[in-house]
Amino acid sequence: MKLPIFSKVFLVFSLFAFGLFGILFLVFNNFYYLNSKNEDKKKSEYILNEQEIIFKDFIKRYDEKIVLIESIVSKLNDEKQIIDFIENIIFKDKTILSFKIVSLNAKETLKLNNNFGESIKVVEYNNLRNLFATNYFKYMRVLDYQEIYHYSLNDSKNTINFIIRSKDNFYSIEINLKNILETIINKYPKKIFIANTHNDYINSNFPINLNSDNYIIKKIQIEEDSNFTFLIELNKEFGYEFVDNYIKIVGGSVLIIMFLLTILFSLIISYFLNKKLNLNRAEFIKNENNILELNERDKIIDRYIMSMDIYPNREIKDLSSSLAYFLGFSKNELVGHDYRFLLSKDARHVVDFIKSKVEINNKTYILEEFEGVKKSGELFFFKVYVEAIFTDSKVDYYSLICEDITDKKRVENLYLDLNIQVDEYDAIFQNVDSGVALLDRKGNFLKLNKNICDILGYKSAELLNINSIELLSEQSKDVFQKVLTNLDELGTINKIEQIFIKKDKKPIHLEVSLTLISYTNKIVFVLNRLEDKIKLKELNISLEQRIKEELEKSKAKDKIHLQEQIKNAKLSYIGSMAAGIVHEINTPLTYIKGNLELMQYDIEDLPSSEIKDRMLYDSNKMKEGITRLANIIESMREMSQSTKELKEVVNLYSTILTALTMAYNKSKQISKIYINDKLFDIDNIDKNEYIFNSKVQKQRLEQVWVIILNNALDELIKIDDYEKRAIYISIFEDESDIVIKFKDNAGGINKDIINDIFEPFVSLKEQGGMGVGLNIAKKIVDEQSGVIKAYNEDNGAVFEIRLKKFEEDLV
After folding, report:
1. Banded model confidence at residue 282, pLDDT cuts 50, 70, 90
2. CA–CA separation, 417 vs 544, rounded Å?
3. Given a cut of 80, is residue 531 above it in pLDDT?
4. d(CA 148, CA 171)
5. For a 10 Å CB count at each end of the chain, is N or C smaller?
């Protein structure tokens, strides 16, 4: 059943009446509470005004004091006078913690700390800082003469610095705010909080919600970037009684009146309802135009403001066209995706931290520096304002407003790099060997390093108050003055000798170099001791002599190498001749050997007799001689063959026997030779008795064995008793090498040359040796990828050679 319009209106206004009654009831019951709260607010505002007056009077008092300090200190030329004035006058005020002087180029030149009754502490020159990269120096450098600037650091010291600019410097005092703030906090019984510029609460460990209505706030602006906020907490409850009689008497009357008014209003409104239902067409169009205008504003905001909405699950809800364009994406590429892919790795954990901050404090959180990555891979930096949007006490989404600070960040990085470079240049400046200083055009010292103080005998503070011209002797002053005057044309003056007068009045000759830095109109002043220059000349002379000696040695080496080449050529020719002679001798020797064997057969057929026995004995001796001659000829043939440059697989044992055969004529008269503990016998040679194969150049290795044998024989001949002379040769294998050792008992190698035994021109022989044999032997062994070393053992010299074993499966 459809209700008539009158009934609908009646029901609506009935509900309206009861709602209105409830509102009136709350108004009457809370009237006393609101009135009391207003009174408390007025009292709190009065207290804050009084606090502001006290605090500003305190600031004004120290503004006057810093002006007084500037007017006095700027007239004192001596550092000691300044220190005495600060200690005896200024530091009597225990609120003043420190005093410092900063030059116009941001370098601290003097810093004093108040030790409260004890001698003040003067900060050493090396510990003074350069303030160029600090945030507050940009405000200091724009100060006018005698203009004051205040700043406070972000720390827990609760101090404020008063800075005034003089003609040539900045003067600064650091003031302790503890006493004045405690006075303000304790002056009234009300609960008072004080926050500094960085929102650090001085007398509370808990953050205060500044958006809460429970606080009266007074912000006292000291500077553009410096302020103090005073807060007074309002009483949270004001007691009032709930009056039952009031509800019974007034409540009933109000209900009756509301019911009658409801009927009356329903009748009146029913009459006008039809007119109200027919909406004014013009009004509707006007509202529609307003909506269109709002939509147009949204489009402008979308085009120029970088914003983004993010769901709690990190999904992008929406973002402005301006932000999408900046990132290099389209909206469709970003909406619905996890926003974290836009962040650099270092920034991802920071965002979750900010989300928790926003949800806990229910306020906007500002992230001063936020790093991200564009689609192109380029890094950017944002300042981000984050606010949580709630629905039914739950976060619906986060709204972000982004401000591009990439250029600002780059500028900060440039300033940081510049400051680092300044520190690096200062380090170089202080540690360079020369005395270095920076002068103005008049020759006054502006900056200097420690070495220049050491050279001239002054302290740095003393030199900074002396003109460089005053340090020169009388005859050098005019010349130096002319150099300074004409430096614009010359630009640089290098290494002129001048006479300086040290602090102890002793003259010193120094080498001076000057360079004008045109864009700063300052002069780089470099001093060097002439003693260093003399030492350098002596070193150069010594070096020239050394080079001359090395050239002479090189010429001697070349001469000996030429002699060796000639000798090798002769030996090569002799070898060719020997090969021919051996061939010619071998033919008749074979004929003689064959006929001797036939003759032995004939002798054996003869009947037994003394003559037969003698003939057999003689023929055996002849056979032994022929065999010895055949061994010698075979060794000569092997040694005389042309050296093959290509390596081949050779039995090293056979090469040793060949070398022993060639040296036999010499060795048989000097010493016994044992190979693998067996006495060498030229009449009984079996080159295959031991097999030690290696891939080497055969004739070159035989040359090494001959060199080592000859050296050993030359030393053994010095021993008188033949029976006490011996050479022991051993050849064996280890894991991967073939080891050959030549050992004698001639007393060993002299300790003075044992480490250089394989160097050219180092000889074991007292006479006749050129000292190149072992050097050649080492080169040959090195060419065979082997190792040779020499050492002493059992009163004798040992030469140990290691060569790689030949393995079939490695070929």
Report:
1. very low
2. 45
3. no
4. 10
5. N
Is 800 within 8 Å of 789 (Cβ atoms)?
yes
For residue 376 the two structure tokens come to 């192109």
Q: What is the pLDDT of residue 740?
A: 94
Which residues, other chains included, contact 598 with Cβ-Cβ below 8 Å and sequence gap of 6+? none
CA separation for the pair 157, 202 (Å, rounded): 9
Long-range contacts of 249-258 (CB under 8 A, 24+ apart): 251/21, 251/25, 254/21, 254/24, 255/21, 258/17, 258/18, 258/20, 258/21
Question: Residue 397 maps to which CATH number?
Answer: 3.30.450.20
Looking at residue 747, its amino acid is: G
pLDDT at 441 over 90: no
Task: Tell me the residue type at 779.
Answer: K
Give me the count of residues in the chain: 811
119 or 302: which leads in pLDDT: 302
231, amino acid identity: L
- 20-23 LR contacts (CB < 8 Å, sep 24+): 20/258, 21/251, 21/254, 21/255, 21/258
b/e string for 148-160 if b means 16 or more Cβ within 10 A?
bbbbbbeeeebbb
In angstroms, the CA 404 to CA 383 distance is: 6
**Does residue 780 surpass a pLDDT of 80?**
yes
Among 21-25, 98-102, 494-498, top mean pLDDT goes to 98-102
Task: Tell me the sheet residues that pair with 228.
Answer: 220
Q: Is residue 523 part of a domain?
A: no
Q: For residues 201 and 299, state if they share a domain.
A: no
In sequence order, what are the beta bridge partners of 450? none
User: Which domain, by its residues, includes 390?
Assistant: 288-411
Q: Which two tokens stand for residue 25?
A: 């009831």
Q: Of 391, 411, 431, which one is at a domain's C-terminal end? A: 411
One domain, residues 223 and 339: no
Tell me: do 772 and 664 sit in the same domain.
Answer: yes
For 462-524, the DSSP string reads HHTTSBGGGGB-HHHHHHHHHHHHTHHHH-EEEEEEEEEE-TTS-EEEEEEEEEEETTTTEEE
State how far the Cα of 685 lies from the Cα of 743, in Å rounded to an integer: 21
Q: What CA–CA distance (Å, rounded) separates 52 from 46?
A: 10
- Helical ranges in 610-720 per DSSP H: 610-640, 652-662, 664-670, 698-716
Q: How far apart are alpha carbons 500 and 480 in whole angstroms?
A: 11
Is 263 in contact with 10 (CB distance < 8 Å)? Answer: yes
Query: Which tokens is 644 given?
Result: 């093959």
Cβ atoms of 200 and 193 within 8 Å: the answer is no
The pLDDT assigned to 182 comes to 82
Residue whose C-alpha is closest to residue 102's, from 64, 70, 63, 78: 70
Domain termination site, one of 372, 387, 411: 411
The token duo for 577 is 């001749």
Helices and strands, counts by H and E, the chain = 20, 27
Which tokens belong to 601?
A: 């057969």
Q: Tell me, yes or no, whether 771 and 663 share the same domain.
A: yes
Which is higher by pLDDT, 131 or 624? 131
The answer, as to whether pTM is greater than 0.70, is no
Domain total in the chain = 3
Q: Are residue 226 and residue 318 in the same domain, yes or no?
A: no
Pairing of strands 693-696, 121-122: unpaired
Q: Which residue has the tokens 């809800």?
A: 317
Residues 225 and 339 in one domain: no
pLDDT averaged over the chain?
A: 77
List pLDDT tens digits, range 55-101: 889 889 999 989 989 888 888 888 888 888 888 888 888 889 889 99
- Residues 94 and 219 both lie in one domain: yes
Q: For position 257, what pLDDT does the model report?
A: 73
Name which of 38, 42, 51, 57 is nearest 218 in CA terms.
51
Look at 209-218, 439-448, 563-572 and tell me which has the smallest mean pLDDT.
563-572
Residue whose token pair is 């305190």: 58
